[in-house]
C-alpha cells in the first residue's frame, strides 16, 4: 500500500479522513497537542511550523501523497492570535507544498468557504477571494502561496462540517444537541448561510480531489441553509425538545471575528467528478443511527 501523510489527524476532519483513507493507504497521521491512537495507522507528534521537522518527516516516511488538514480553524482564535495562527495556517502550508513539489507527489489542502465576503453567493472556484476575517485571509494567502509553489496542489474549499464527535474533537452539532436536550436556550442565526456537509462526505471529497484535481475545487453540500434552519432539522431528526431553539441575527452576537452572511459554495465542478453529498436530512439520519447522542 502507498503511504499517505495526513496532517491534523486529531482534528475533526483529519480523524474522519483517517478512517476512510486507511482502507486504501498506509496512513501516517500527525497531531500536535491532542495525542490519540487510531487503529491500523501510525500517529506522529509533529510541530509543522518547524521546517526541519517537516523535512525529517518527509525523509523518514517518504509519503506518496499528502493531505494537509492541520490548522487553527476557529475564526475568533485566529483574530486574537494572529502570529500563532499565521505560522500553521500560512507558513507551514507553503512549506508543505514546497516539499510535495520537491518530491512530485499529490498534495491536497483544506481551505475554507470563509475566503469570501458573503455578498455574492453562491461562489464558484474562479470567483475572486475577499475575506473579511483573519482566518479567511490566512487561508486565502495559503491557497495562493501553495499554488505558486506547487501548481498541482488540490486546494479544497471546505464548507461548515458536522458529524459524530471523535476521540479528540467535536463538530458544532454536539453542543447544539446538548443544549437542546437540556431545554436551555440555543440562539442560532437566521441570516448566516452555508452549504454544510458531514465529516465523512468531506473526507470522501478530499480523497477524490487528491486523485483528480489540480488547482481549486469547492466541496460544499447541495443545500444552502441558515444555522437556525439547521437547528430545526436537528430537532426533527433527533427528536429533541424544541423549546430552547431561538432565532437571532449576526449583529446580536459580539464576536472577535466578523462573519460573512452567505458563503454558500457552488460545488457543481466536484459533483461532476463524482463527489456526492447526501441531503442534510439523510446525513443526519445516518448519524442518528450510528450515534449514542453523546
Description:
The chain is α/β, with parallel strands linked by helices. The protein is built from ten helices and 13 strands. Helix 1 links the parallel strand 1 and strand 2. Helix 8 crosses helix 10. The longest helix has 22 residues. The radius of gyration is 18 Å and the shape is globular.
Summarize the biggest pleated sheet: 7 strands, parallel
C-alpha termini separation = 35 Å
Based on secondary structure, the structural category is: alpha/beta
Give the helices and strands as they follow along the chain. EHEEHEHHEHEEHEEEHEEHEHH
Strand ordering within the main sheet: 3-2-1-4-5-6-11
Provide the β-strand percentage band: 15-25%
Strand tally is 13
Radius of gyration: 18 Å
Helix content: 25-40%
**Approximate shape:** globular
Mean pLDDT across all amino acids = 95
Amino acid at each position: 500500500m502507498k503511504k499517505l501523510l495526513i496532517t491534523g489527524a486529531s482534528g475533526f476532519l483529519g480523524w474522519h479522513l483517517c478512517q476512510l483513507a486507511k482502507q486504501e493507504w498506509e496512513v501516517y497521521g500527525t497531531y500536535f497537542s491532542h495525542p490519540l491512537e487510531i487503529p491500523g495507522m501510525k500517529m506522529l507528534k509533529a510541530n509543522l511550523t518547524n521546517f526541519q521537522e517537516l523535512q525529517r518527516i518527509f525523509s523518514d516516511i517518504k509519503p506518496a501523497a499528502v493531505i494537509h488538514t492541520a490548522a487553527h480553524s476557529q475564526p475568533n482564535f485566529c483574530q486574537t492570535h494572529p502570529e500563532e495562527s499565521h505560522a500553521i495556517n500560512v507558513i507551514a502550508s507553503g512549506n508543505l507544498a514546497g516539499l510535495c513539489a520537491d518530491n512530485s507527489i499529490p498534495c491536497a489542502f483544506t481551505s475554507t468557504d470563509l475566503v469570501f465576503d458573503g455578498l455574492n453567493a453562491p461562489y464558484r472556484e474562479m470567483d475572486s477571494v475577499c475575506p473579511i476575517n483573519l482566518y479567511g485571509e490566512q487561508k486565502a494567502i495559503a491557497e495562493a502561496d501553495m499554488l505558486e509553489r506547487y501548481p498541482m496542489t488540490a486546494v479544497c474549499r471546505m464548507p461548515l462540517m458536522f458529524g459524530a464527535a471523535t476521540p479528540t474533537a467535536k463538530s458544532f452539532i454536539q453542543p447544539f444537541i446538548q443544549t437542546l436536550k437540556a431545554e436551555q436556550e440555543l440562539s442560532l442565526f437566521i441570516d448566516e448561510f452555508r452549504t454544510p456537509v458531514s465529516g465523512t462526505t468531506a473526507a470522501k471529497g478530499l480523497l477524490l480531489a487528491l486523485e483528480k484535481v489540480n488547482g481549486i475545487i469547492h466541496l460544499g453540500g447541495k443545500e444552502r441553509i441558515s444555522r437556525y434552519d439547521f437547528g430545526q432539522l436537528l430537532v426533527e431528526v433527533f427528536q429533541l425538545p424544541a423549546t430552547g431553539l431561538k432565532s437571532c441575527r449576526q449583529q446580536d452576537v459580539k464576536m472577535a471575528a466578523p462573519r460573512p452572511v452567505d458563503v454558500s459554495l457552488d460545488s457543481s465542478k466536484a459533483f461532476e467528478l463524482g463527489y456526492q453529498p447526501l441531503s442534510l436530512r439523510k446525513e443526519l439520519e445516518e448519524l442518528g443511527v450510528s450515534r449514542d447522542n453523546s
